[in-house]
Each structure stands twice: as C-alpha cells, then as structure tokens.
Amino acid sequence: MKKILLPIILISSYISAQAPAGYYNGTAGLTGYALKTKLHDIISEKNFNWNYSDLQNYYNQTDLDIYYDHDISNTTLLLDIYSEIPGGPDSYEYTSTQMIGSASAEGQGWNREHMMPQSTFYSNYPMYSDLFYVIPTDARINQLRSNYPYGISTTTASNVYYTFTNSSKIGKSAIPNWVYTGRVYEPIDEFKGDIARSLLYFAVRYQGKLGTFNYNNNANPASDTNPLDGTEERAFEPAYIAMLLQWHQQDPVSQREIDRNNKVYAIQKNRNPFIDNPGWVNAIWGQNPDNVAPQTPLNLTSVQNSAYFTTLSWSPSPDPDVIGYQIYQNGVLVATTHSTSISIDHLTPSTTYIYTVKAYDNGYLLSSDSNTVSVTTLASDMYAKDLYVSKYLKGSSNNKGIEITNKTGHAVNLSDYRLSIQFPSGSNYYFPAPYELEGTVQNNETFVVLNPGANFSCFTINQARFITAAPQMTFTGSQYLELRYKSTTVDAIGTKNQSNSSILSNVSLYRKNTISQPNSTFNISEWDSYPTDYCQDLGGTLSTSKLITSVDKTFKIYPNPVYDNLYVNGETEKVRTAQIIDFSGKVIYTEKDPFRNKKNISVQGIPAGSYILRLDDQVQQFIKK
Asked: At residue 62, does pLDDT exceed 50?
C-alpha cells in the first residue's frame, strides 16, 4: 500500500509559514541553554491546559490517520505509532470511541499513553494532559511498556521480551554508554524522530520543574528507568541525549508532525519548537563542555533582609560557559538560578542562616564556594509571609476563577506552588493530583487562574495567567480548595472533609482589604460575599499614576519613539524582569532575565501607542510607532 507520509526537513523560510509571526521573537543569536531557556519562556507563557478526559475527543483533531493507508479526505481512524505499519495494512485500527482501560492482547482497544511516564511528574497537571506527549496507542502495548523508557533494544533473542505486530519491541537496553540495563521500548524507525522531539519538548516546556520530578530514585542506577538527570538545562542523562539526537537526525520532521503541531497549537496555544525549527535541537544539546571548573562568584551579600525572606546578590563568575548558580543554606542546596541575585523565602523569623553560592557551567562542573554571608531574619515585618488567595469566583456553568496575590516584598518562584481540591468518595474524601503553578510572580502583582470555558463580564480568558480544566478548576461550590507550597497548606477556601456548599456555592468571595496574610484555616469573616458571576477588578491592575510619577533615571532607553527594538543603557545585567504595561495598567509583555545576552527589548507585534517599560522597580515611558 502506498505510503504518503513524506519526511520534510524544515528550513527557516518554511518555519514562518507554520508558527505565527513573532512567536519566536527573542531567539535570534541564542544557542545552548540560553536558547533553551528562551524557548521555555515562549512555549510556557500561556497555555490552555485541558482535562485528561478531554483528550479522547481532541484526538479526532490531532491524531487521525490520513497519512498512510487511508483516504486522506475521509477517515475516522486514529494513527497509533505503536501499531502503525507504514508499508502495508495495519493489523488492527481504532476510532476514538474504542478507548478502553486495559487489554489482554493487541487489537482490543486503545488508551492514552504518556510518552514521558506519568510517574515522572506524579500524574500532576498540567503535565498530565499535555497533548504534545500524551497520545493514543494500543492498550496492550501501552500496558506492557509500563514506565520503561524508549530506547535501543538488544537483538539477542533471549533478551527480547515482546515483539509487536509492527515490529516494535520491548527488550533489554542496548543504549550505548547508559548505565541503565533494564527494559526499553524500541519503536519502529518511522517514529523515532517523532518520539525524540516529543521528549525534548517535555524538557523545554517543564524546565524549572524537572528537578522536582521523580528521577534516579533507585539505589541501583542500572535499574532506574527514568532518563532525567535532575538538571533543568540538560534535562536528560548524556547517553540518553545522544540517543535522542541520533533519532532526531535519522528520522526528520514529517508532514504529520507539522500538521499535528499546528492542530495542538490551536487547542493548547503553544508549539513544539523542534518541529518548527529542527536545527534548534543540535544548537541546544550539541555542545562540547570543557573539563575546567568555573571561577568562584565573588562579593556575595544580602541586599534585603526581612522576617520570612532574604535577597542575596553576588558578582558573576567571569567564565563564559557559566549557565547558573547554586545557593546553599547552612550547607544544603536550596535553590538554583540563572541570575546573579535571588530571594530565598519560607524562612523563620529571628533565625540565623549561613549562605554560600557556587557557579556551574554547561558541563555541570562546580566552582568553589563564594564568601560566606550570615543573615539573621527580622522578628517581624510589613510583608505577607506567603502568597494568598484574594478572590474566589464560583459562577454559572464554567465561570470558575481564582485570583492569587503576592505581597511578600519579593518576587516569588511559583514552581513549588500548587492548587489542590478535595472531592467526596462515598462517605470519605480524597485529593486528586494537584495543578502545579510555574513561572515567577512579582511583588505587588496578582494573577488569575481560570477554567478555559469561563466567560466573565470583567475579565477575558486571554488576560488570565493560567488557564486549566484540571479538577482544581471544576469546582461546584461544595469542595474544599487550597493553595499549597510543596505539601504544606498556605491558604484555604472552605473546610476539609465536609461539604462547603452553604458558603461556597454560587458566590464570589473577595478578600477584605484589611486582610494581607494567608490563612491555612478558612475564616469567612475575612471575605466579602457577592452574588454568582460577580466580577470586578479581577486580576488587579497596576497603578499607572504611581508608575508614571516614579520614573527613574537609572536607565536610559532609545530610540523613543520606537518601531522594533527598544534599547536600554545602564547596569542591565542585574535586571531580573522586564514588563511592558499599557496605560490601563495591563501587563502586556513580561520577560525574565531580559538582558542576559542582549541589550534590547523587542516590541514587535505590540500595537502603536504609549507604554511604560518597567525594569524591576524602575520605569520609563515610551511610544511605540
């Protein structure tokens, strides 16, 4: 049977026809892990995260088999890369209605396969339902693959445990130079590049969380199935990266991948950059690290001290291959950053802490310790001790929203924060896997989490920071909901282990202005109650009048008016966050570590008008032509 799936190697002139204009702004000239970080920022900025149960229907858009042995104009059959036989008729095929839970043999039905096993991220959202690596596959092969990694199987017959109808197999690992010797699932050559690019997407999309995932948990590395290595930049163990790069080169991007990338983009609003630009794979991971440890960062100091946090700053290591810094508190690694300053939070008042910093390079060699800084936190301060929920909206249909506020006095890394909800199960209650937050929220900034079906009068989906149909945003008004830091309750809405319909159903709760601290025990007296679908001042806008009157001369910007790129003079290397704000107070663009490798902010794609450029706490006005 004629195969019509043709491999296509994308070139730059073709990329622009796939990704929307300006989607990859800011990547020009970047290589290595700086490029990876920028791509992470782009594809993670705003995603529509759907419920796991939604995927069955979405596969009718993303995974129909119009590429191999079907009429390209009319098919309802799914493409299953675990059973597809490119050169002839498949042994069995499925429609989206034939999803099952388990199977005793091939061909009985399909289910949803996590190409990166869900045990890696504890089945938490948004990872749990990301269409870029959750695909429809034969249920039996899915079961047998278990959480084994993709890999190269031995050809020794006694160590090949299963061979499937399309010749994919499960056998003992023969991946060169990898310490793991257990079982791997080897797909057919036709789909090895597809799988490699999906896993590399995972490494980019969830950078900043990879170190919190489940990896290297076995005492015997030879039996550890997870190829993640705990690093945020490289992501995978070197031997595994080498295999993925080989698969990527041997099986170039196909028309199927291009089409699927566009269809998933329409659903999730983000893209797999390695389908749009395959050359980025080698640009990021094709480095040759040296074997020289970086020089020590100098002048570590505490530039801000409070009751619950301290902000540290230091002079950078001069080595050009330095990619980040590790921060040690009382000798224990507590954080990493790509910047030369960081706020360490969740400290205890009136307590002394000792800090040192080490630089690390792209080969993950460490410098020696910086100088030591001793910090004693204050007994109390004016700031909130943590983030808190400032609005809870339970409206009609899918009108469900949560607003969270940061008044801690410092920027907060959201990677360890999550929303958790409790559901009844008979006479008992349980917590499904939580929804994890990500990115950074600035001091005095609020953000909103919305259900993707929400339709509030005062706030649109596009204004929300997080958009998810995870269980946490499907509440009916009777469930207990909480904001967590790691496993600790930070702020609570309702009471555990009981129905909360008498206080949470069909109501909008706004935290009183007199309340500026989270409370792990819900107290209705801290809230003002409004009718269902009430919506006012959601998201919290910045006060532009205050911003305008606080214009600072530390930085100079040019040209002004500007067409494409706004350049900044001054000590830009210390700027952690740049924001462009319109005169309604809406933040329309945010970029972390904006001047790591450049001196400009791209304003391409921003409508003509007057704006405010905010660099950390310093602001300048400019006009976009």
From this structure: yes
CATH number of the domain within which 422 lies: 2.60.40.1260
pLDDT tens column, 330-362 = 999 999 999 999 999 999 999 999 999 999 999
Closest CA to 407 of 447, 439, 440, 444: 444
pLDDT confidence tier of residue 556, bands split at 50, 70 and 90: confident
- Provide the whole-model pTM: 0.85
Contacts of 499 (CB under 8 A, 6+ apart): 424, 478
| Same domain membership, residue 552 and residue 522 | no
Helix, strand and coil content of the chain, in percent to the nearest 5, comes to: 20, 30, 50
pLDDT at 77: 95
Of 140, 228, 149, residue with least CA distance to 182: 149
18-53 pLDDT, tens digit each? 799 999 999 999 999 999 999 999 999 989 999 999
Q: Are residues 352 and 491 in the same domain?
A: no
d(CA 532, CA 393): 8
Q: Is the model's pLDDT at 477 over the cut of 70? A: yes
**What percent of the chain has a predicted confidence (pLDDT) above 90?**
79
pLDDT of residue 42: 97
In angstroms, the first-to-last Cα distance of the chain is 56
Strands 48-49 and 466-468: parallel
Question: Would 221 be classed as within a structural domain?
Answer: yes
Half-sphere exposure of 167 toward its Cβ, with a 13 Å CA cutoff?
A: 9
What is the per-residue pLDDT for 16? 35
* Shared-domain flag, residues 211 and 307: no
CB 441 within 8 A of CB 416: no
Q: Output the CA torsion 508→514→516→517 (10° steps).
A: -90
Domain that holds residue 617: 544-624
Whether 135 and 150 have beta carbons less than 8 Å apart is answered as no
Same domain, 445 and 492: yes
Is 539 within a domain? Answer: no
Mean pLDDT of 215-241: 89
- Residue 56 shares a structural domain with residue 132: yes
Helix or strand or coil: residue 354? strand
Contact between 374 and 483 (Cβ < 8 Å): no
Strands of 41-130, DSSP E: 48-49, 110-114
Q: Which of 285, 318, 338 is the last residue of a domain?
A: 285
Q: Are 594 and 473 in a shared domain?
A: no
Q: Is residue 506 over pLDDT 90?
A: no
Do 435 and 124 contact (CB within 8 A), yes or no? yes
Q: In the chain, how many domains are there?
A: 4
Q: Give the CATH number, domain containing residue 317.
A: 2.60.40.10
- Of 410, 406, 432, 407, the closest CA to residue 419 belongs to 432
Within-domain flag for 3: no
481, 505, 531 - which closes a domain: 531
Given this model, what pLDDT does residue 581 score? 83
Task: Report CA-CA distances (Å) from 3 to 68, 78, 89, 291.
Answer: 5, 16, 10, 47
Evaluate if residue 455 carries a pLDDT over 90.
yes
492 and 617 share one domain: no
Q: What would the pLDDT profile of 111-161 be if each residue is shown by its tens digit?
A: 999 999 999 999 999 999 999 999 999 999 999 999 999 999 999 999 999
What CATH number should be reported for the domain holding residue 551?
Answer: 2.60.40.3080
87 and 180 in one domain? yes
**Secondary structure, 3-state, 510-534:** EECCCCCCCCCCCCHHHEEEEECCC
d(C-alpha 85, C-alpha 188), whole Å: 9
